[in-house]
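Backbone-to-sequence.
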């Protein structure tokens, strides 16, 4: 490793951060001391995983009002936790956060990085960030922003994540010299606001010594990794309603949508609105595309009203319609919930709902 020392190369960052950083609700005023509320740091770091700051701010503020301490979160019901997280996505973060809060409420905060990393959902980056920002430990936190900043600064070829161990060692002296909280947040801030995928080099306090800028390679460093093409699926998402009750999948304990209530779904070919006949009444609305990291869903919303209850398939439950707004749902299912009662594009007679339910997708869809 022939890089210049981190103390010298990163020296301008502290003063730049003090002048230009954003005022965010989880940031402490005094960066020379441990954070007055480590729990706030923990909540913010879990929320910020794969989520933009602007999206997180209102969720963070509401969360801290609802669950102001680890004990308050540990004592909350699953539905209350998922409802507070509703719309933020990646719901397992909420479950990890509650599990971690339970551990902290019972046993206190871990006293070292290894034990902090062992808490649910923290992993190397989040544990290092909490250690540095909350407790002033010289633990190098490397997220996407940090990898991009350091890859350009040090002109790292290939995937900088492959050199994570070297970068952590290299960063440690600078963390000790400038203060772990200040430098950690300065690197994050620089990557988020200046050294973005399309960088604003004239505004960067490190530009005079940036290897990628000097080489004219800020556009191809760091190396962009190709993502697998997301799987594309299409289906009906359906609200069966009978006597002011609707049919829902109750929350699963595992999987992508664990902890959330969901509408049943079935393949498009099982229902053709223009040719429908039968005892029920249906309404449809315009389809939309729901995008996830690994898949793209073409969601066709459907509301079928029947005159009487019928025995649902295993894994489905009748729920009073007035209770629906209080149930935690993912964005896709929230969309159908919000459509109920609004005018649709097509209305008419529907086929036997029990026959349709036999075609419903597995609960994990």
């Amino acid at each position: 490793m022939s890089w210049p020392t981190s103390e010298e190369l990163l020296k301008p960052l502290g003063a730049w951060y003090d002048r230009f950083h954003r005022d965010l609700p989880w940031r402490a005023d005094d960066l020379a001391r441990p954070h007055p509320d480590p729990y706030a740091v923990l909540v913010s770091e879990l929320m910020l995983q794969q989520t933009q700051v602007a999206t997180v701010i209102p969720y963070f503020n509401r969360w801290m009002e609802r669950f102001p301490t680890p004990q308050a979160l540990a004592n909350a019901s699953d539905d209350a936790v998922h409802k507070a997280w509703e719309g933020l996505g990646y719901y397992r973060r909420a479950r990890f956060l509650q599990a971690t809060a339970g551990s902290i409420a019972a046993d206190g905060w871990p006293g070292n990085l290894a034990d902090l990393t062992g808490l649910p959902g923290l992993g190397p980056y989040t544990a290092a960030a909490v250690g540095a920002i909350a407790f002033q430990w010289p633990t190098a936190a490397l997220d996407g922003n940090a990898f991009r900043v350091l890859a350009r600064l040090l002109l790292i070829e290939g995937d900088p994540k492959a050199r994570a161990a070297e970068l952590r060692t290299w960063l440690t002296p600078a963390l000790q010299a400038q203060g772990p909280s200040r430098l950690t947040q300065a690197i994050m801030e620089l990557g988020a606001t200046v050294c973005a995928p399309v960088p604003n080099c004239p505004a960067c306090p490190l530009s005079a010594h940036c290897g990628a800028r000097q080489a004219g390679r800020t556009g191809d460093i760091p190396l962009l990794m190709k993502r697998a093409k997301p799987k594309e699926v299409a289906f009906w998402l359906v609200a069966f309603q009978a006597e002011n009750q609707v049919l829902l999948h109750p929350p699963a304990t595992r999987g992508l949508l664990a902890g959330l209530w969901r509408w049943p779904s079935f393949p498009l070919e099982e229902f053709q609105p223009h040719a429908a006949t039968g005892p029920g009444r249906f309404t449809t609305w315009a389809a939309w595309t729901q995008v996830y990291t690994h898949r793209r869903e073409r969601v066709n919303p459907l509301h079928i009203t029947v005159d009487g209850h019928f025995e649902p398939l295993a894994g489905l439950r009748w729920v009073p319609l007035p209770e629906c707004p209080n149930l935690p749902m993912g964005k896709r299912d929230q969309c159908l919930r919000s459509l109920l009662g609004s005018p649709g594009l097509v209305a008419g007679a529907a086929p036997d709902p029990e026959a349709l339910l036999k075609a419903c997708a597995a609960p994990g869809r």
